[in-house]
Task: inverse folding
């Protein structure tokens, strides 16, 4: 992966994906005694950064390529579904049957065919491979795909420019981390464009495979497959392509509890007027409750959340 | 009021207020069969467009001027409080005692002294005038102030530029309307910069003084002073300075029920990942449920809402 691939993706995304704002809230800064900047990717098309990687990958396909297939807990699938629809290509999304209903419904609404499987017993890779073979579809992996990482890296180009505009030259950049596509893409962009900014991954407690892998120097797995409210980022282990990049560029990984993610959602509601999903709020939670740098930037990477979960976060932490 | 005053305000606001995004959601468009663009002023500093007018007015004060006073149901007060704090000036905000607790708390957190009065029996003008006299404060009215209208008009400059960039040359621009400062400012900016865009005011049913006044050609009052969840825009009658502008430039006014405003909040949650307060959602509600133009732009003018009211909107309309 090179910065040139990220810049090429940025050219393809221009006018298709949104340049999202980097927001700051004076009262949140005052409450936590540091400056916190939030890259609001929940405002991206389809409600998460995943549209960037999806558009990058779909727009890079050969001219005669047929349809595409993605497996996804929901956000990658929505991104690929909309990108495929806008390219006039058929799209199949393989999703766990316990994915949030709003994500399943939206993926269908963007025009994709949704195939459900059981997260505990099913093998999404096998299901996906079989469908690709039968129907001649191109698999777009959620993070182990160079064009996807390049697309997510465009978030890092924007962070570099927005941080420079805000006068920030030294800061941690805390990034919500599942397989590591967004983290790796941002790390590569910052290395080239804002070397004083350092990526730190944020994961849910118990699903901190990236943090442990970065410490061990080798890819480790999580003991559990599910059981956190942060559905978007419960990947089994770091990506093959993303881990080496993060091992070379990222700082120590961070993790937060589900309750801390829900509390960050309530704080984003009050101070930033943003709707975040739990997995999209772990970086804000880690920025608030773990990171100790005086200036911290974090990704608010997704906002596709069922109303009942959001209302519960407000009831418990919105006081 | 002239476009030059709005441009001068824009110069003073540069780097102080945010240029907010104009958002669009493919699934919302599909559900309603038209293109809906949302100017997300809930992402403005202090959570509403009011910071624009406040900064415009405070930054236009004479060099030796002392502190400032505002009366406000909450959003204007928060805007003036932060603008005054960043100018190093003392600030008093006169608020009704039934204002949402989050607005009272935030106004204090921005450094203002809050003076509460009873909306049914008290006279905020008299209280404000007395305090201004005693303490040598300058009153910053919420809408009948040329610098405030000019500041709110910077929203219109941005809408004109963003609509042009999106290829929109003909559209209704539905604006949340209390006293009419935002509506009048935007109307003046659009007249000069995007004459194919026409302002229509949006108000709560029963508090549609502007719509009725525009129809009658003279300023009419509302029968009630309170009783709608849309606290931010329950003004008794159109502003003296704002009405003539809107009478000359705006289309027919619109109004929506409280339930429609709450439903628009739930739709903004799902499709735009924005937190709106009821009064900040009436324009989206009117754009969705009343306006019939194929392209419609609306302001999401504020997002300072108590969690319980937001959770109630989700529980009732978030399905």
Result:
């Amino acid at each position: 992966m090179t910065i040139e691939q990220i810049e090429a993706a940025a050219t393809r995304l221009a006018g298709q994906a949104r340049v999202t704002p980097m927001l700051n809230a004076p009262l949140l800064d005052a409450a936590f005694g540091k400056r916190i900047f939030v890259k609001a990717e929940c405002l991206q098309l389809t409600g998460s950064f995943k549209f960037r990687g999806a558009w990058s990958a779909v727009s890079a396909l050969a001219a005669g390529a047929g349809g595409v297939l993605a497996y996804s807990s929901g956000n990658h699938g929505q991104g690929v579904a909309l990108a495929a629809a806008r390219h006039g290509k058929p799209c199949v999304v393989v999703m766990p049957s316990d994915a949030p209903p709003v994500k399943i419904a939206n993926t269908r609404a963007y025009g994709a065919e949704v195939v459900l499987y059981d997260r505990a017993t099913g093998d999404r890779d096998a299901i996906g491979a079989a469908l690709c073979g039968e129907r001649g579809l191109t698999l777009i992996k959620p993070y182990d795909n160079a064009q996807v990482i390049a697309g997510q890296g465009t978030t890092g180009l924007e962070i570099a420019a927005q941080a420079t505009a805000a006068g920030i030259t030294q800061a941690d950049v805390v990034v919500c981390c599942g397989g590591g596509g967004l983290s790796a893409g941002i790390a590569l962009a910052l290395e080239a464009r804002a070397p004083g900014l350092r990526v730190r991954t944020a994961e849910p407690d118990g699903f901190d495979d990236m943090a442990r892998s970065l410490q061990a120097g080798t890819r480790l797995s999580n003991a559990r497959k599910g059981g956190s409210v942060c559905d978007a980022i419960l990947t089994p282990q770091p990506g093959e392509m993303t881990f080496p990049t993060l091992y070379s560029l990222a700082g120590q990984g961070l993790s937060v509890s589900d309750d801390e993610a829900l509390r960050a959602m309530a704080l984003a509601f009050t101070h930033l007027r943003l709707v975040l999903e739990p997995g999209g709020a772990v970086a804000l939670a880690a920025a608030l409750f773990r990171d100790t740098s005086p200036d911290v930037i974090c990704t608010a990477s997704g906002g596709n959340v069922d109303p009942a979960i959001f209302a519960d976060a407000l009831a418990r932490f919105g006081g």
Remarks:
- The mean pLDDT of chain B is 95.
- Chain B is about 45% helix and 15% strand.
- Residues 146-165 of chain B form the longest helix (20 residues).
- Chain B has two domains: 3-48+145-317, 50-139.
